[in-house]
Amino acid sequence: MAQSEGQVPQSGETRSSARKPTSRTTRKVARPIPGSEAGVVGMGLMGTSIAACLLGAGHRVTCVESDPGKLRSAPRRLLAILQDASSKKLFSASPLSLMKRASISGDLASLVRAEIVVESTVEDLAVKREVIRGVEEVVSSKALIGSNTSAIPVTDLQQGAKHPERILGLHWAEPANITRFMEIICGGATSMANAKRAVRFACSWGKEPSLLRKDIRGFITNRIMYAMLREAFYLVENGYATVADVDRSLRNDLGYWITFAGPFRFMDLTGIPAYAAVMKDLLSDLNCSSEVPALMQEVIKSGARGVSNAKGFYRYTPAQAKRWEKLFIDFSHEIRRLAEKYPEDAGDAKIAKTQR
Ligand SMILES: NC(=O)c1ccc[n+]([C@@H]2O[C@H](COP(=O)([O-])OP(=O)(O)OC[C@H]3O[C@@H](n4cnc5c(N)ncnc54)[C@H](O)[C@@H]3O)[C@@H](O)[C@H]2O)c1
Q1: Which domains are delineated in the chain?
Q2: Which residue from 18, 146, 210, 269 has the highest number of Cβ atoms inside 10 Å of its Cβ?
Q3: Which residue lies with its CA nearest to atom 8 of ligand 1?
Q4: Cβ(185)–Cβ(219) under 8 Å?
């Protein structure tokens, strides 16, 4: 079984009673025992970068994909990610040697030896449930099954499972082999022992995980991001600002501090009472619609999928779309390096040093 020295998160020094991982614990990265096996189901955008992360962390990785075209292209796409990560020194093994530790098939039965399986198929409850049931048929009763759902409650994924206590949410961020983000979400039936095992796995993958001890739709980041997206659409649809104006403001304000601080640290840094004063008048003015924004529906109806088909909220030539994709990967590497330079307890470490 994959073991790690990564510790289970201890209580952070916040006013909240919720336990959170500290960077002191999460930076102590442990590698899975060489040869320990992990599985990924769904070799789309995220599943491929998740498989690259697991390979880079030392697992043997079995990947399953149901679409024949995606199955054929998966080795090429996986190798490209490993080559990019290797050129940025994310791991020392050669991409080709890591590829030898990967197997890719269309059959869930190949997951039989996996100690942890990451489901990363489409965001559809019925599909995910069916995949999880299929995985349960082949893996051992102790294997962890983590779903990379963006917002489906984990409790819904556990319904009808043989061993719901080992099913949890494992929410990654793209590009999954570069970002340090991971939310581990307990469904109603997840055992805390299994949640802690998942935290240890996440630490061994170089993540800084947050543990959600209770299930909630959207988890942490998506609840907050979708509140932001709703307001962004409101401003554009009602003529207050253009798409580019909204993007520019957020990049230069929130984008400037969020990797350093997070919202609560940021309020500490900039003075808490001012936020309370603003909330008093602003909160009732914010958009609370439960409809998918009309502009979003219109853009999707036009066939836009984003840079993947060079059609989005902005216009792209195919060359520009490719360039944006590449720049996003380059930026992800740079922001990771910057985040590592300023870990979440950076200020505490300095205080401790000067006090010594
Ligand atoms: N794209 C993101 O940035 C992002 C971020 C966080 C979480 N997620 C979540 O990750 C999951 C995957 O997202 P994505 O963007 O990679 O989607 P995607 O469409 O690129 O990939 C999904 C893959 O799953 C495959 N698939 C579907 N049914 C399958 C089955 N029964 N067995 C095996 N393979 C199957 C599809 O063929 C496809 O290759 C979704 O739940 C999504 O909400 C995505």
Answers
A1: 23-212 (3.40.50.720), 225-342 (1.10.1040.10)
A2: 146
A3: 150
A4: yes
Is 300's pLDDT higher than 60?
A: yes
Percent of the chain at pLDDT exceeding 90: 85
DSSP 177: T
CB 198 within 8 A of CB 144: yes
Q: What is the DSSP letter of 33?
A: P
User: What average pLDDT does the structure give for the chain?
Assistant: 90
Q: Give me the residues paired with residue 183 across strands.
A: 171, 210
User: How far is the centre of ligand 1, averaged over its atoms, from the C-alpha of 41 (Å)?
Assistant: 9
In the predicted model, what is the mean pLDDT of residues 234-258? 97
What pTM value is reported for the model? 0.85
Closest CA to 116 of 179, 67, 58, 181: 58
Three-state secondary-structure class, residue 119: strand
Stretch 262-267: mean pLDDT: 97
CA distances from 316 to 97, 115, 305 (A): 37, 43, 12
Choose one of 45, 53, 64, 72 to mutate for the ligand 1 pocket test, by most ligand atoms within 8 angstroms of C-beta.
Answer: 45
Query: Would you state the pLDDT for residue 151?
Result: 87
Pocket (CB within 6 angstroms of ligand 1): 41-47, 64-67, 70, 120-123, 127, 131, 148-150, 172-174
Q: In the chain, what is the greatest distance between 2 CA atoms, to the nearest angstrom?
A: 62
Distance CA 217, CA 313 (A): 27
Distance 48 CA to ligand 1 centre (A): 10
